[in-house]
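**Backbone description:**
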Amino acid sequence: MLFTQFGRKTRRMIRGCVLSLLPLLFFAGTAFSATDITSNAKIVADKKSLNGILITFQEAEKNLKKERLPGIMALYSGRYENRGINKTTLKAVWQDIFTRYDQLSSRHLFSKIIVDQKKGTAQVTCTGALFGTSILQKTGSLSIDHWFEAIHYLVLEKGQWKIIGHDPAAGSSSFGSAIHLLF
């Protein structure tokens, strides 16, 4: 985990500073795209894999804005599994989000992308959020979900990068890791 060399109080302070700056990142207008890579990101990937991973998240954003459930679900592996949630259950979660919110958008800021060519897997460390406007309270954009330095696990299937959920090598116990179901 990032910042493990610092004490608990220092880590909280750093995390608080980063989280307080997130609104600037997310609401800075067109200066940022929905998916960005930090200038000092650690990238261990060939150009084709990197582009393919970015396309996956760009497709997610495009399908969010159009509220296209089939398009969103196409981005997930058929083997998706995350803390007991499978792809079928995840589809119901997304349907609920599409029912409750309008004007959906997301932001992904990647700080590390590690691709294992032999296994056809990728780990993408990301800080981001999912936003929408409640259909009941038209009071502006709300953060539906947010994450800090979470790892998106992807697998290469038929030439496309798909979201697979948590680390398949970790088994069912991922104690101490962030629970992040959607991406």
